[in-house]
């Protein structure tokens, strides 16, 4: 009778130990899941940051292109002004020659 009680007590202790191990495994798996979720969140944040940086670079490129176009327009206007001055000088020279 005493041996059966001892055997049942040992079986109960073994089952409690198994339950404790399963709870520990569940805790470890939940911790791993939490770490993976944090890693995913970090990667998404990094991706968002990279997209923002790309957008900023695109905006900078557009601004530089606009500046280049404005400078080109300024050069064309100066060339036109120079041409008009040359024509005016030529006209004055011809008027002086005719008199």
UniProtKB/TrEMBL annotation:
It comes from the Eukaryota. Keywords: Membrane, Transmembrane, Transmembrane helix. The keyword Membrane applies. It comes from Dreissena polymorpha (Zebra mussel). The chain crosses the membrane at residues 39-64, 71-98. This is Uncharacterized protein.
């Amino acid at each position: 009778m005493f041996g059966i009680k001892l055997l049942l007590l040992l079986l109960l202790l073994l089952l409690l130990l198994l339950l404790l191990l399963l709870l520990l495994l569940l805790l470890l798996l939940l911790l791993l899941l939490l770490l993976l979720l944090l890693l995913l969140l970090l990667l998404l944040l990094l991706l968002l940051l990279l997209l923002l940086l790309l957008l900023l670079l695109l905006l900078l490129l557009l601004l530089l292109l606009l500046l280049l176009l404005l400078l080109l327009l300024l050069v064309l206007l100066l060339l036109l002004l120079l041409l008009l001055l040359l024509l005016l000088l030529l006209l004055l020279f011809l008027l002086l020659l005719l008199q």
